[in-house]
Design goal:
heterodimer; A: 257 residues; alpha/beta; Rossmann fold; 6-stranded mixed beta sheet; 4-stranded antiparallel beta sheet; 10 helices; B: 375 residues; Transcription Regulator spoIIAA; 2 domains; 12 helices; 71% helix; elongated; nucleotide-binding (chain A); Putative ABC transporter ATP-binding protein (chain A); ABC_transporter-like_CS (chain A); transport (chain A)
């Protein structure tokens, strides 16, 4: 049995009187790529933000890499931040810094790292994220949406985290760019042994990338399992989602329902 | 965890040097590792033994890959041995991703380049001026069309902007002018008392406020309040492609957005200046009464006798011109906003600076003009 790196138990989050999650449980094991799906407004991004410690939940326990979230002391926070990476929906790059400087930001916390080596590592990550070598000197406003996402991924991976959180990595990309991004995530996941927590709407991404899928509905994780197992779930939303016309088109050839 | 820090052990074999790396080759270890590995000599072939490496991440793999490349380039070559399948795969991924071309360092700027930069900025300033004129022309043309075809005119928007530009600015403008009147009376009193010419403080206050300060300071406050508000409103519409949407729907942004705003300014700025004049005179009158014992009736008499009505007219003539400047600059800066939030912020502050600067320049031009024609 693989080690559990993220565990969420009995999570309750609410904004004012609007309850987003009510008794949500979820576990993610090391090295797997988990896709989180759900209708609009079911709190997928809220769940991601809560697990990385940006939202304070009303109740419930969250542990990431064996540490409590949200951390209670600065030391706990620092220990955790070095081990997770987050890619936000539109990259969330610092607009006043070039792409290379953006990627260097997480590397600055490493004591004793020479500027030359930091630069090299940043360039390596930029190239691994599939950006051309000259993208490092550009500012985020000079990049297309797809390139910004790649730069965001490069920054999320810069300090070699054990878990990366990706918020809608393929939203707004053209099909070719989205497929490339899928391959990139899968490839990086395999070669770096990453654990990936992925929020998405994209059925192609789920097929191409994810080991396991968690469906968010009715304010909790309704069901988890592989894509194949999703086809046997008897729930109207899950059936519509995974067996609707778009789902049939996205299913890989030979993968029989 | 039982993992240990990175260690390097050098073993001399008959044909090659064997470099045994062990422990963690991770980002935290990389600074020390890099320093140690840069001392590895290239005189003999080197075998890099990774069989005792416990953990490796991309940073570690990068250092190993670079060591291999350096030794291959400088010396007798290097060979990686004993890597576990996972580590070998990682090394391969990293080696494949290493940027092929090193980014060229930025060239130093020579004198010619600097001169060209100056030229570009001058040309840019010229273009900026031309764009402002273009915007002025557009607004005047749309205003004229609104007169010819009143049905296109948007009265509701005009009333809304009149409230935002005019009514809501009354308290701040009045307070500002009141305080300026007080300051003028006080400063004037202390200076004029030396000559026993206290009574001329009324002329001082009246002429400076009516002719210059009332309208100029009102315009500066309005430029700060309203030019920025125009830029922010139009700029955020530009950013969200609302203006493009208007164009595709056959709506003219000039008629819809610029004319109501500029017209509201044209109507409101003279009124605000009038209020500022009144507040300034009241402030000055109160101070004159308190400090110099010039009673309000005496102040009024002196005001009517000593001050030509031309001063008041000259002050208010400038108001529509300043209004047009502020409106044009604000709308133009809004249209210059590009798709991101930084440019919105930059244009908003640029609009305020440009508007205030242009108002002061126009005021100076007016002063010279009026001096030339002798009023």
């Amino acid at each position: 049995m693989a080690e559990t790196v993220i565990s969420v138990r009995g999570l309750v989050t609410a904004f004012g009187r609007q309850v987003v999650h009510d008794g949500l449980d979820l576990e993610v094991t090391r090295g797997e790529i988990l896709g989180v799906v759900g209708g609009s407004g079911t709190g997928k991004s809220v769940l991601l933000r809560t697990i990385v410690g940006l939202n304070r939940p009303q109740a419930g326990e969250i542990e990431v890499l064996g540490r409590r979230v949200p951390p209670r002391t600065e030391a706990e926070r620092a220990a955790l931040e070095g081990r997770i990476g987050v890619m936000f929906q539109d990259g969330a790059l610092f607009s006043s810094l070039t792409v290379r400087e953006n990627v260097e930001v997480p590397l600055r916390r490493v004591t004793g790292l020479a500027p030359r080596l930091r630069r090299e590592l940043a360039d390596l990550k930029i190239s691994m994220a599939g950006l051309p070598w000259d993208a490092g000197g550009k500012y985020p406003s000079e990049l297309s949406g797809g390139m910004r996402k790649r730069a965001g991924l490069a920054r999320a991976l810069a300090h070699d985290p054990e878990i990366v959180f990706l918020d809608e990595p393929t939203a707004g990309l053209d099909p070719i760019g989205a497929a490339e991004f899928d391959r990139l995530i899968r490839g990086l996941g395999d070669s770096l042994g990453l654990t990936v927590f992925l929020v998405t709407h994209d059925l192609d991404t789920l097929h191409a990338v994810c080991d396991r899928v968690a469906v968010l509905a009715e304010r909790r994780v309704l069901v988890t399992g592989t894509m194949r197992e999703m086809l046997d779930v008897d729930h109207p939303w899950v059936r519509d989602y995974f067996q609707g016309p778009r789902a049939r088109a996205a299913r890989p050839a030979g993968g029989q329902g | 965890m039982t993992e240990t820090a990175a260690q390097i052990e050098t073993v001399a074999e008959d044909a090659a040097t064997r470099l045994c790396l062990s422990g963690r080759l991770t980002l935290a270890e990389v600074p020390a590792l890099d320093r140690a590995l840069s001392r590895v000599g290239a005189e003999r072939p080197v075998t890099i033994d990774l069989s005792r490496v416990e953990r490796m991440d991309t940073a570690g793999a990068h250092v190993v890959t670079r060591l291999e490349a350096r030794l291959a380039a400088e010396g007798k070559g290097a060979r990686i041995a004993g890597a576990s399948p996972a580590h070998a795969a990682l090394l391969e991924t990293v080696a494949a991703a290493e940027p092929a071309a090193a980014p060229a360092p930025a060239a130093r700027r020579g004198a010619a380049e600097r001169l060209a930069g100056v030229g570009r900025r001058v040309a840019g300033a010229g273009r900026f001026g031309a764009e402002l004129l273009d915007m002025l022309g557009l607004i005047l043309a749309r205003l004229a069309r609104g007169i010819v075809r009143p049905r296109e005119f948007r009265l509701t928007a005009l009333v809304h902007h009149c409230e935002a530009v005019g009514v809501q600015a009354v308290p701040i403008v009045a307070l500002m002018a009141f305080l300026i009147g007080i300051v003028l009376a006080f400063q004037g009193a202390t200076q004029l008392r030396q000559f026993g010419a206290e009574v001329f403080v009324v002329d001082l206050i009246a002429i400076s406020i009516l002719r210059e300060l009332g309208v100029l300071l009102t315009s500066i406050i309005v430029a700060g309040r309203t030019a920025s508000a125009f830029t922010a409103a139009i700029g955020s519409m530009k950013m969200r492609e609302e203006i493009d949407a208007m164009r595709t729907l056959g709506l003219d942004p000039g008629t819809m957005l610029f004319v109501p705003r500029v017209l509201a300014l044209l109507l409101m700025l003279p009124i605000l200046a009038l209020i500022a004049n009144a507040a300034g005179l009241v402030g000055g009158g109160i101070m004159a009464w308190l400090v110099l014992d010039i009673s309000p009736p005496m102040f009024l008499t002196r005001l009517v006798e000593g001050t030509d009505v031309a001063n008041y007219v000259i002050g208010l003539i400038k108001a529509p011109v300043f209004a047009l400047i502020i409106g044009v600059v604000g709308c133009h800066a809004g249209m210059r906003v590009r798709g991101n939030a930084e440019s919105l912020g930059r244009q908003t502050s640029a609009a305020v600076v440009t508007a205030i600067f242009a108002v002061i320049v126009a005021d100076a031009v007016f002063s010279v003009l009026f001096a030339e024609i002798g009023i």
